[in-house]
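Re: the pair you flagged

First of the two:
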Amino acid sequence: MQQGTLLSGIGSFYTVLDGDGQRYTLRCKKKFRRQKISPLPGDEVLFTPGSGEEDGWVEEILPRRSVFIRPPVANVSLLLIVLCPEPAPDLLLADRLLVRCRQQGLKSVIVVSKGDLDGNLPEKLRAEYSGADAPVFPVSAMEGRGLDALREAMRGETCCLAGQSGVGKSTLLNHLLGLSLETGEISRKIARGKNTTRTAELLVTGGLRVMDTAGFSLLEMGEVMEPAMLKDEYPEFQPYEGRCRFTPCLHDREPGCAVTAAVAAGEVAAPRVERYHQLLAEVRKTWKERYD
């Protein structure tokens, strides 16, 4: 058996890339259906190549380091959260994605596109997310500015772009990978057919590995979370743990809260904490209704 990375699945056929850059079209063993496991783009697999007109087979799916259901992808290690001046940045979405990244053990960066529309936005975001363990990369895909630094951050990772509609994810993807096609055309070229249903595909080119997928913008908070756990997904809160009057402290409205004091002192960004309170209210509601 050989080892490779699953790039895409079309119907009952899967495309797998081995370590030498060779692509194989394979079928999947029925045992995965019995085990209720579906092969996903990004999966590391063991496979047996076909011979002659015989199809090869995906034999084993190796343990996943991360997995998402919507969109269905595996082993993403770096999420690029794309924001821009227009449309106005959806920072609540960005915060949701950062929480999900930390839950899954993913790295994250914030990419600011269309920098010509507001040159001050990157610095505003750097100030707001300075403690969030999410570096900010300003780029201009059309002018080529900032792309080399972003590519360097992406090397060695399996990446996915996320962000609201209209922020330029497709344009950025094309310029990062040296392509000139629309995202749908990229997918059709790889699938070798115009009438295929696409969920996600892993593009491997120029030393980069990037998921071509829709749907990360719709990412929800994930599984039901105990409200006291949400604060643990905010790195900027960690220096203040154990310094609040009450334990546990959710850093909401409790008297003597060290995070609230840090906001008043300008040590933690107030807008980031305000959005944390919004997400906390959602988590509390979901937790309360978990048995309904």
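Second of the two:
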Amino acid sequence: MSFSALGLSERLLQVISNQGFTQPFPIQKEVIPAIIQKMDVLGIAKTGSGKTAGYVLPILMNQPQAKETKTRYLNTLVLVPTRELAMQVVDVFKLFGQGDSEPIKAKAVFGGVSINPQMKGMLGVKILVATPGRLLELVEANAVHISEIETLVLDEADEMLKLGFKDEMDRIFTLLPKKRQNLLFSATLSEEIKKIEQLLLNNPLVIKINEEKDAIDLIQQEAYFVDEQKKGPLLRYLIKSKDMQQVLVFVSSIQKADHVANKLRNNGIEAWPIHSKKSQGARTDLLTKFKHGKLRVLVTTDLLARGIDIEFLPYVINYELPRSPKDFIHRIGRTGRAQSPGMAMSLITPDEVQHFKVILKKMGKYVPGIDGNELLNP
């Protein structure tokens, strides 16, 4: 099936073609026609499955063509858990919205930065991508109105609940018009997601994309068993010996991210940490450099993993294991995307061996083990 069979306009099809996209992802085949028809949708699919374009394209298709008006009333609201994801989603709206004689004004808003420029920039915005807390601040300041929303999107709703946004989301729901289209996307179908579904969705189309196993099969995995004090030297050895030019390194804490990045730089490997204590400007700059291949190593925590969306990332390294097998799968899923192979490596200390066995059992995968200590002392 091609994009032309999904009911999209010629202009959108031209933009899609210009960007080199030829075939829609499975979730896009299902959701695009349904959203164009103004149906409610519940989509369960992992990050990287193509769901963002899956709702962006039909939302742009459904936008009224009336001449732009300078009001503060929104047409479409997209709620997301993190500022990185907010910026990523609004970039997709702008990418596919190009070519219009009067492009629909889309904007991202989030906390951690001054609210004043965001308030001033709301005039004429029709599509707003927002984190829940900052949206409520803007509403309370009368900088934006959500009483005429036609389409509400909850993107990565499971993460919003996990990060404690339930109360803010409930407050936002009470401010919205009762008649609207609702689109709910989540990586998991938890009991909390089911409750939101029952609260928000009206006879929805339910789509569950089970791509996880296929995606993991695209990822080549290796496990390096190493003593704790040799983890740093082994990380540097792997990056240099394999000539890795773009690698994402996962650690368990902000302090560890700073430490690992500093050690890499001190040993001639360009690396920078990205975490919640960095300013928004610094985070944006680091992500942009990394995505464009101008930064060799980015060291991050799980909190920011969902905002790091790179289609052809070749390497991921677990410097430390995450707490849950699901987080492990999500981490290594940063590579092996868009049907492209990737390499995921895990550095396992003696204390982590049992936990790693649990992760492997959950994945149903065999991962070859390599003696990391021996590599450093041939």
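The first strand starts at residue 41 and ends at 44.

-B.
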